[in-house]
């Protein structure tokens, strides 16, 4: 990760705090954070009080007055220094990416309630943009017989750039058809041309305003009843899994995976993939929880509660993936989107 911009409106602007936390004084530039106002919080961490010289620190909270703005300083930090800033700011604060008066986008520490509302809105907005993209893909008939998977993927990428500006993607763009729909994510089968009466799915992970979307949808080109039934069952299994998640406050990744597998069998299909049915999603670049990969997935080995916060204190948000396959006939389908929002 390259150097990061951090907007400071409080004690991180103080030279003694910078020397204590970063080992140097930083050069910054004046800017402002629109749409926020200042509140205060009482600090109890003795190390933070010692560095800042005060137990009363300012805190940015969302303002109902669109004319409000907080004046401050934009600092450039290395990844290690940004991590040190995270350790300095107490749990009352959470870090979000926000647009400043100058148009620059920078990290800023705000109150935790504001931060979680901001993150939820951004994730839902990113998903809506991805949904709009796939709706336009269907409207334009981009998934068509005679087109190769690679060509379709390139056309969807170009369409995303036309609709939203140059779009980054946080994982590889996937278009798979026919027997390729059986393969798990990590496989990279050779390019294939779609046929009449084919089935295909698209899995894209675009990044909008530094937040990740991850959306998967399945398309049936002909009138094959088995393929049409599988495509129809995908969102049904997804919604049943979502309801199960909502009803189980202490659910683990392992328990939800087991339920998705059960729902797949009940519908007459096999759960595909490489042993997981979803993953964490959030700001880009995202990080694994406590560096333990299994805890980032809806998978048999994940016995930690899904409703938890990460090591930065942020609420964990999840993508649910449903990959149903008919191994006998050699095809599958894929449906994924946000599990716990919307």
Can you describe this structure in just a few lines?
By secondary structure, the protein is of the alpha+beta class.
Summarize the SSE layout with pairings.
Elements: E1 4-8, H1 15-22, E2 28-34, E3 36-42, H2 46-52, E4 56-62, E5 69-77, H3 79-88, E6 93-99, E7 105-111, H4 112-140, H5 149-164, E8 168-169, E9 174-177, E10 199-204, E11 206-208, E12 211-212, E13 215-220, H6 225-247, H7 253-266, E14 270-271, E15 278-281, E16 317-326, E17 331-338
Parallel strand pairs: 1-7
Antiparallel strand pairs: 1-5, 2-5, 3-4, 6-7, 8-11, 9-10, 10-13, 11-12, 14-16, 15-16, 16-17
Helix pairs in contact: 4-5, 6-7
List keywords for this structure.
342 residues; alpha+beta; Hypothetical upf0131 protein ytfp; Creatine Amidinohydrolase; five-stranded mixed beta sheet; four-stranded antiparallel beta sheet; 7 helices; Pept_M24; Gamma-glutamyl AIG2-like cyclotransferase; AIG2-like_dom
